[in-house]
Amino acid sequence: MTEIPAPGTARPGTAPADAADVATRVFVDHRELVFSIVYNMLGGVADTEDVLQETWLAWAARSAAPDAPGIESPRAYLVRIAVNKALARQAAISKRREAYFGPWLPEPLVTPLVPDTGPVDSAELAVRAESVSMALLVVLETLTPLERAVFVLHEVFGYAHTETAAVLSRTPAAVRQLAHRAREHVQARRPRFRADPRLSQEVTERFVAAAFGGDLEALMELLAPEVTLWADGGGKGAAAGRRPIHGRARVAKLLVARTARPLAGLDIRYQRVNGGPSALVYSAGSLFSVLVIDLSPDGDRVQGIYSITNPDKFAGIE
User: Fold this and answer.
1) Is 294 in contact with 220 (CB distance < 8 Å)?
2) Of the candidates 19, 47, 40, 237, the residue with the CA atom closest to the CA atom of residue 149
3) Helices in the chain by DSSP H: which ranges?
4) Which pLDDT tens digit goes with each residue over 206-230?
5) How much is the pLDDT for 275?
6) Average pLDDT in the 21-27 region?
7) Strands of 223-232's sheet, edge to edge?
8) At a CB cut-off of 8 Å and minimum separation 6, what does 168 contact?
9) Residue pLDDT, tens place only, 154-173
10) What does the pLDDT read at residue 26?
């Protein structure tokens, strides 16, 4: 990218306000990329927005500083600021999650349900589609903050190890070690595969119909033997207890038992959550839960169910 004017300066014949406009435009141009990187590191929309605000303040201050050298790559500069600010927040985030009631799941990142084969109308949707699946985000929670940052930058966004090293102020050799450990850890817990989007949508709809229709037989056919249900209510929304529920029989019976008290004004809307087809469940016009399923790599069985009912995690969903 062409070097922008040095912070605090303007091109010949322009007013200082024009330099501020340039700084704003550069930040806006890179905002969605930075958002996506930080979200994949932190798993929270609210925390991500806080980091973006801090990044903007740092960028604006640098842009207004007199006599500061020019920035050759604003993209690299903004990513470096944001990633390191995200890392600095990790201790506080970890402490908050230790006190969280029940299973913690990432905040859902919702985008319209558009065909994978069709054109993407918005650059924002294209960038946010880089966010990894809910299932992988749960696995990433088990990495160290540095391992997660390296994994996100290299595996999700394609950064070379030398670029990541510059972002994290580490040597390329250290980054390669971090990347190796992170990749092995993730692969052991979640082998790589890409589910067919149409199949994912079809199974999601069949699962929702069976779960809310109280169809135990259909659920037993859909669920993998080792299926796990994570229900994140945060002590504020309906949940299945303080721990994930494991096993087809237990999960199916629990889901069917819930239909004994049907939701008033039930309305199911299908959208993409973290890049995959998912269901938004409304009751009497209000969002009740976000439901995400994860398919097994060897077929169309459901191996993971992620149910988010904590209303605090719905703030960014329209």
Assistant:
1) no
2) 40
3) 16-42, 45-64, 74-88, 90-98, 123-128, 134-140, 145-151, 161-168, 172-189, 197-213, 216-222, 248-258
4) 999 999 999 999 999 999 999 999 9
5) 85
6) 90
7) 110-111, 266-273, 276-283, 286-295, 302-308, 223-232, 245-246
8) 83, 84, 146, 149, 150, 175
9) 999 999 999 999 999 999 99
10) 93
Model pLDDT, residue 168: 97
Is 48 in contact with 35 (CB distance < 8 Å)?
A: yes
pLDDT at 21 over 80: yes
What secondary structure does DSSP assign to 302-318, as a single string?
A: EEEEEEE--GGGGTT--
* SS3 assignment, position 226: strand
In whole angstroms, what is the distance from residue 194 CA to residue 205 CA? 19
Secondary structure (3-state) at 56: helix
Structure tokens at 1: 């990218």
Q: Of all helices (H) and strands (E), which one includes residue 245?
A: strand 245-246
Tokens of 179: 């990347």
CB 207 within 8 A of CB 294: no
Q: Are 153 and 38 in contact (CB under 8 A)?
A: no
| 81 contacts 58 by C-beta, under 8 angstroms | yes
Q: For residue 96, what are the contacts with CB-CB under 8 A and spacing of at least 6?
A: none
Sequence-separated (6 or more) residues with CB below 8 Å from residue 222: 203, 206, 207, 210, 301, 302
pTM (2 d.p.): 0.86
Are residues 293 and 224 in contact, defined by beta-carbon separation less than 8 angstroms?
no
DSSP string of 254-301? HHHHHTTSPPTTEEEEEEEETTEEEEEEEETTEEEEEEEEEE-TTSS-
Structure token digits, residue 12: 């010949």
